[in-house]
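#lab-general

N.A. 3:47 PM
ok so I finally got the sequence cleaned up, no stray characters, all 510 residues accounted for. can someone with queue access submit it? mine expired

B.Y. 3:52 PM
send it over

N.A. 3:53 PM
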Amino acid sequence: MSVDPVIRMRQIEKRFPGVHALQNVDFELLPGEIHALVGENGAGKSTLMKILTGIHEKDAGEIHYLGKLFNPRDPRHAMEAGIGIIHQELNMMDHLTVAENIFIGRESMQRNRFFLNERGQNHRTAELLNRLNMNIDPREHLGRLTVGKQQMVEIAKAVSHDLRVLILDEPTAALTDTEIDELFTIMRGLKERGVAMIHISHRLDEIHRITDRVSVMRDGMMVDTRTTGDTTRQEIINMMVGRVIYEEPKSHSRVPADSPVVLEVRNLNAGRMVNDVSFKLRRGEILGFAGLIGAGRTETARAIFGADEVQSGTISIDGQPVQIRSPRDAVAHGIGYLSEDRKRYGLTVNLSLKDNVVLATYDEFSHGPFVNQPAVNGAARQYVDTLNIKTPSINQIIRNLSGGNQQKVVLAKWLIRNSNILIFDEPTRGIDVGAKSEIYTLINELAAQGKSIIMISSELPEILRMSDRIVVMCEGRITGELSIENASQERIMEFATMRAQETLLTEIET
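B.Y. 4:20 PM
back already:
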């Protein structure tokens, strides 16, 4: 017996200036299913969902919701109809309580309608959270909760509107494994109550873990919809990018054993999360840094780059001890740092692509108060071509580029500076599988040119695919070091879960 879709979108079209964002897109969502929507950045996923939730108006096509023609005027209209969306960047108020955030604009009032019924509102919130198996205090201020708990509050807020459809946009991007487990438990509970969900994610392992069907978009068109259990990861990737992408781990290091050491860190201590850290980085090497969240990897990188104060230890470049007290010092010594939070630390999102590309080298493009704009334009165009940055022009505002292209702009900034040591902190976080492959190719090409690279990643397949050697951290210390020939996910996790008080293992070689 066939089931009528809760959502049926037919022949949806959307154009923006110079971009045909959606072309004759068909999409269906069944009652009570968790439906994955995947594709590269710029494939049209977000545009399709913004049309469904009233953020954008479609140019052509039809939407049927619960069997009736539906044209959402705005997000409030969609929410009142029972269609909610949880954006990747949460939109809530940290200074308000959980209950106040959930019922903002729909507050419980006293009978005289002049005073807030705080006790009643907290009671309603507690009932809602209990129904969703969320262990959260309604009276707690939102800003004191973890990102995972804040996301659960946003889900509770959506469900409080008698939700029939919930859209989750990259819901696990900033969550720990435990928080992901909690989120999936909540999603399964909503599924049992008949709520249909659209799950947008770049993490393909999650797709098979939580979804019933998967729809793949590419270049503004719907490629196919399949039952998740009958579709392999490689098939999904092939549909997303239109080509085969290989993700085999590296089998051996390409760095000669006698390659000179370009960076040596000895007994580095910085804050609570960097304790007696020592390692070497060789010319042309990709040194992977693995470990669980909170292991101290980012803190180590920030200390080397001068972003955090170093209490003790030495840093040597090309055999000479150096003093790095600030990022300016690090840049002067040829170190570039691509932060995991590229929008906060790597880019100025309201400036153009060309301005961002020369951020670290403006002194070379200026004479006194005057900027050599033809030279800036030429450098920007060169790296747009070299790195295959997809942009309408070098004047494009950086916030309007996809995550993968933003990451390439950050890389261009350091390549113009001619940095010989590059620290990549979670280089592919929030980037689709096709852009990931391009970033991997660029990193390998840089290493082949003699650049030395530290790559921090929480994705073990990525570490194994890219690294010549792997350093593993736990609780602020290096607990293991593996050659790529000896490395495996199991061995990395063994060191990543080793207590810092246990015997420190410095190196394991073949």
